[in-house]
Hints:
- The complex is a heterodimer of chains A (116) and B (118).
- Helix content of chain A is 0%, strand content 54%.
- Chain A contains no helices and eleven strands.
- Chain A is globular.
- Chain B is built from no helices and twelve strands.
Amino acid sequence: DVKVTQSSRYLVKRTGEKVFLECVQDMDHENMFWYRQDPGLGLRLIYFSYDVKMKEKGDIPEGYSVSREKKERFSLILESASTNQTSMYLCASSLFEQGARGNTIYFGEGSWLTVV
Amino acid sequence: AQSVAQPEDQVNVAEGNPLTVKCTYSVSGNPYLFWYVQYPNRGLQFLLKYITGDNLVKGSYGFEAEFNKSQTSFHLKKPSALVSDSALYFCAVRPEVFSSGSARQLTFGSGTQLTVLP
């Protein structure tokens, strides 16, 4: 069965703290993604990675960075957390595609981050 | 750039009645279309996808979706709703072929909250 694991489900952090959100997938997927979900805005892509040490900015990368040192692990980093980063963060993964395959993206359970 | 519109924030339907959750899209070239469901405090679960072939796609939990190229729509349907279908539903799109990494991502709609009333 497909498994994307986000290690922290609920976090409360203070403004200015450095925050790490960890994600691990066990499906040997090449692509990994970090999304942010806010009411009325749907899911917005923060960063994605298609290979180890490779990353590309998504729609809202400001205030975030990522790390992918191993294929199975993709970390989202908030260098200095702010209250407007209070949100639900979703990690996802999928197989790499060449040409037209439409591989499904699989999601983790989400991490609720509150910045106070 | 691709986009998805889910015109209804909220859909209410009585248990046993048919349900429809609407989705329209915009993408260059042929689309790949997806539906996901999210239960409270959970991640997104894949329901179904359209890649090519039959316009009517069948997915998990009795859901199906109809691809209509001329209307650029991909509405989610179920013949008989259950209370347990109450959840947040997301439609997503990406182009069939991409030339840049930025198009690998799915673009999601804002979501439709489905409530099935007993």
